[in-house]
Write a structure and sequence with these properties.
Domain ABC transmembrane type-1: 94-286
Transmembrane segments: 36-58, 98-122, 129-153, 159-177, 220-239, 274-293
CATH superfamily: MetI-like
Family: Belongs to the binding-protein-dependent transport system permease family.
Distance between the termini: 72 Å
GO molecular function: dipeptide transmembrane transporter activity
Keywords: Cell membrane, Membrane, Transmembrane, Transmembrane helix, Transport
Strand content: under 5%
Largest sheet: none
Length: 327
């Protein structure tokens, strides 16, 4: 009898209630000024990446222009020491960097969810084995591991670098997913799902993972940021096909040709600023996710609103008393 009641309670969430919670979460996210700025910045880079062939005025590899020409009407970001248009390189580099960052971030998060949730829910020997593998990746220095792998891959493209970053950067996320899965697995509705005969795959996919959406979204943001920084760092160090066009290779060529020494700031500032702004957009969007998932942040904001309202009421009452006294 009690089992049936628990099962009924777990199915009490109707589609209307779920849709209402989803709309409330989206409203909370977009009401946060920081997350809204982050979405606008990220959306701007997405538009640039999608419409790169239409936005870029020249071929990024073309060397038909004057060398080290400062920003002008014909070349918004100037030219390189080989006469290449920096603005066109920046636009095409946005596409490559964004694909690598989002692709590697999403792939590493998928691996983290698969390993972390499986280990946290199943426990026992499976948890011990997967946790040991996770610990091995955690103790390895990330940049050194990437450099060693890259040294065996000749002339790797940005997309190959993204794949390597995803396959080596999932451990921290898996550790978080494992802890969350262990917490959720001990709740009553999971026990009810087991008693109802649901398979392990169904419980993980439909009961545990949906309740980890906020953690997964937050992990995606930081994984994408880490992937962008890692790819740019590898390209800057020369562990990438330097003939490819990305923000990292732009920094590599500007460094190799002494752009900073010669005062050609327009060569290295755009890719550096692009990396900083893209990373800022991920961080700002993550602030919004924190506000949606952390009740303390929402309640603290509500307390401030209540205090502000009480202060306004006190001021209005004080003005009312003063006017009555004057009459």
């Amino acid at each position: 009898m009690s089992t049936q009641s628990v099962a009924v309670n777990t199915t009490a969430n109707t589609p209307k209630q779920k849709a209402k919670r989803k709309n409330s979460a989206l409203q909370t996210f977009f009401k946060n000024p920081r997350s809204l700025v982050g979405v606008i910045l990220f959306g701007l880079f997405v538009v640039i990446a999608i419409f790169a062939p239409l936005i870029a005025p020249y071929n990024p590899s073309s060397t038909n222009f004057n060398m080290l020409q400062p920003p002008s009407a014909s070349h918004i970001f100037g030219t390189t020491s080989l006469g290449q248009d920096v603005f066109s390189q920046f636009i095409w580099g946005t596409r490559a960097t964004l694909i690598v960052g989002i692709g590697a971030g999403v792939l590493s998060t998928i691996i983290a969810v698969l390993i972390g949730v499986t280990a946290g829910y199943l426990g026992g020997v499976t948890d011990s084995i997967l946790n040991a593998i996770c610990n091995i990746f955690l103790v390895m220095p990330g940049l050194a591991l990437l450099i060693i792998i890259e040294s065996y891959v000749n002339n790797s493209t940005p997309y190959m670098n993204g794949l390597i970053i995803a396959l080596t950067g999932w451990a921290w996320g898996a550790r978080v997913m494992r802890s969350m899965a262990m917490t959720i697995a001990s709740r009553d509705y999971i026990a009810a799902a087991r008693l109802s005969g649901a398979s392990t795959f169904r419980i993980i996919l439909f009961e545990i993972v949906p309740n980890m959406t906020s953690v997964i979204a937050s992990n995606v943001m930081y994984a994408c940021l880490a992937a962008v920084l890692a790819e740019s760092g590898l390209a800057y160090l020369g562990f990438e096909n330097v003939a490819s066009t990305s923000w990292g290779t732009m920094l590599y060529w500007s460094s190799q040709n002494g752009a900073m020494i010669s005062g050609a700031w327009w060569w290295f500032v755009p890719p550096g600023l692009g990396i900083a702004l893209l990373g800022t957009s991920f961080a700002l969007m993550n602030f919004g996710i924190d506000q949606v998932t952390n009740p303390r942040l929402r309640t603290s904001r509500k307390k401030k609103d209540v205090q502000k309202l009480l202060k306004e009421l006190q001021q209005s009452q004080t003005k009312g008393v003063s006017t009555d006294g004057g009459q």
